[in-house]
Amino acid sequence: MAVQWIVVCHLLLTLLVVISFLCGHWPIFQGTFIERINYFITFGFYDYFKRIVGAVFGSRGTDAVLFVEYFCCDRPNPILQIIYLAIIGGTYYVIVKSSFSYIPGYYLSEVHRYTSLLAVAVGILLFLLTSFSDPGTVNAENVSHYISAYPYDNMIFVEKECSTCKILKPARSKHCSICRRCVARFDHHCGWMNNCIGERNTRYFMAFLFWHFLLCIYGTVAIGLVLAGQVKELKVIYILTVYYGMENSFRSLTPHVVQWLMVSYNTQILLMVFLAIVSLLLAGFFAYHANLCLTNTTTNETFKWEEYLSWQRKVHEAKASTAALKASISGLSNERKPRESKWKTFFRRSRLEDVKIVKDNIYDKGFLHNLCDIIFPLSTRPSFSQAKSKSG
Ligand SMILES: [Zn+2]
Ligand SMILES: [Zn+2]
Question: In this structure, which ligand is nearest to the CA of 169?
Fold first, then answer.
């Protein structure tokens, strides 16, 4: 029974750390211990570490840490790419070592030895495509066309020059401070890919997320079927009911079967738990990005919209309080009809406060059009080069 509790604690702890790390900054976790764990993992721990290094090794130690930080966080580097390859390679290796001896089994045919390898290879191929493809770098030659691709909405995108690249910034583009270039329809800089996610490679990035979600589900189900096959082949149910005289019902047998699996196949159980957690995280991440793609928004634009809307709200609040102040002054001067002017003031104020500040995304042209923008980026279409030659 002790093994079971270790697995459960391991599962809960992993889940807590992963959720805190990835989602701890979300508004729903504000003020909770998940937010505090997130702060500690993402900032607090590193801050303490820097202080300790500074206290022990002085300014030379701090400089060395800052140099490593600069190299790891502010410049393109392959650290996370190597970690990704280590995770996918390591997990596949453990699966081969621990579970391939049971394939073919009662529920799995031999073909899964090859399809699993193929599935992993496709995953790595999508990773390489996303990592090494051009995200849509804007340069002096193509800037005129990228400018004509998306109009400025004069809300979150206004016509201005990139202070580093010294070219006009097309609407929806952003200068990536890590890659030191302007990227069209910029989504975010992905550390795992060591590349920006932009106009031209969002499709590969989405395919990568979806494929890895499927890959994890495939792994979880296949290992589950390996274990189910072992239960069947070793006649575990038969032994439990006939030899130990247990009642042949799902409720009475399940705890014993689970306990037996946890003791005899703990590697497979841990792999299943790991793959299930990763598949859930990937599903969430994919759903978030799919929603952005289908509404023709980018991660960068969600931040810009947040800023824009909160600024608009402040402007409206300021207008409302100015109007209320004016109304109360006029109410004071008009002493003959104080009651009526108070009502007027009330309605005038509520009308201003009720102004709905809404996001008006001019790039959202409907589900199919938005999907087309992702699968066939504007800069890959023949019209792109035609417009380029026209403008050139
Ligand atoms: Zn730039
Ligand atoms: Zn970048």
Answer: 1
Rounded to the nearest integer, the mean pLDDT of the chain is: 88
* Packing angle, helices 266-294 and 2-23, rounded to 10: 20
Nearest to 350 by CA among 375, 323, 381: 323
Cα 304 to ligand 2 centre (Å): 18
For residue 104, is the peptide bond before it cis, meaning its omega torsion is within 30 degrees of 0?
A: yes
Q: Where are the domains of the chain?
A: 8-74, 78-136+189-314+359-385, 142-188
Helix and strand counts by DSSP (H, E) for the chain: 14, 5
Q: Tell me: the pLDDT tens digits for 120-132?
A: 999 999 999 999 9
CA 233 to mean position of chain CA atoms = 41
Cα radius of gyration rounded to whole Å, the chain: 29
Compute, in angstroms, the gap from residue 341 CA to the centroid of ligand 2.
Answer: 58
User: What CA dihedral angle connects 151, 157, 161 and 166, to 10 degrees?
Assistant: -80
Torsion over CA: 87, 91, 92, 96 (sign): positive
Ligand nearest to the CA of 189: 2
Is 190 assigned a catalytic role? yes
Q: Which of these is catalytic: 165, 176, 190, 216?
A: 190
Closest CA to 171 of 203, 138, 129: 138
Q: Is the pTM of this model over 0.85?
A: no
Distance of CA 172 from the midpoint of ligand 1 (Å): 12
Judged by its nearest atom, the ligand closest to the C-alpha of residue 131 is 2
Give distance in angstroms: CA of 285 to centre of ligand 1: 28
pLDDT digits (tens, 9 = 90+) for 283-340: 999 999 999 999 999 999 999 999 999 999 999 999 989 988 888 888 777 655 555 5
